[in-house]
Design brief:
Layout lengths: L3 H9 L5 H24 L6 H25 L5 H26 L1
Helix pairs in contact: 3-4
Length: about 100
């Protein structure tokens, strides 16, 4: 969030240019931080299932966006594939946790 150019370079293998790109990257960092804060604040409440659904949606959307960038725009970097793998694993874990919660 504090070094958006480095994050974009590691993730997408591209250089960041212009203030719009910087603002967009910082905005994305704020979104991730907000999700983390919501999860932390609601960890002991009955809203756990709702938070899990929200995080599952986030992981699925990020995974889709990263793969879209790889397929449509030809983006290819180790960071892109690491992030894609991470969000895929998190999405699968989320689905499994939601199924486990439903069976209780």
């Amino acid at each position: 969030m504090l070094v958006p150019g480095l994050v974009i370079h590691l993730l997408l293998g591209l250089s960041l240019s212009g203030p719009a790109a910087t603002i967009t990257t910082i905005l994305a960092g704020i979104g991730v931080s907000s999700i983390a804060l919501i999860c932390w604040l609601l960890r002991a409440k009955d809203a756990t299932r709702s938070v899990m659904k929200m995080v599952l949606f986030y992981n699925g959307a990020v995974l889709f966006l990263l793969l879209y960038g790889a397929v449509i725009y030809g983006l290819n970097s180790p960071g892109l594939w690491l992030a894609s793998g991470f969000h895929f694993i998190q999405a699968v874990r989320g689905i499994r946790l939601l199924r486990f919660e439903r069976k209780k």
